[in-house]
Amino acid sequence: xxxxxxxxxxxxxxxxxxxxxxxxxxxxxxxxxxxxxxxxxxxxxxxxxxxxxxxxxxxxxxxxxxxxxxxxxxxxxxxxxxxxxxxxxxxxxxxxxxxxxxxxxxxxxxxxxxxxxxxxxxxxxxxxxxxxxxxxxxxxxxxxxxxxxxx
Length: 151
Prior knowledge:
Layout: E1 19-25, E2 28-33, E3 38-42, H1 50-74, E4 80-89, E5 94-104, H2 111-128, H3 130-137
Helix pairs in contact: 1-2
């Protein structure tokens, strides 16, 4: 399936920010966006599960939201890794909580600078992390099945 054969709908229209996934096999998809990026989604080798993508989205939303604060304190070329773990409620097939951890060399900061950086990062994430806000407020969603040949 090519992107030109994607049925037009509010979620997949060719607008900026559109995302969709095309089935490539049993429980395997290629996720795409309108900027041309791709990610393999599924349950096999070389694929991200949807839950892993959710955790990556939350983790990177945190660091993207606070990148300017980290760069100001640590230098423009600072190195960082961000991870996200979760507690899953298997009986309800959902995550109960997430823990985001940003790992960076803070050895150049004294205790006061570190405390200030912690506050500024938290504030930036609180202001700008759309994924975090969405998780915190429990966004609702709907699912519909659309036949591209029906009008």
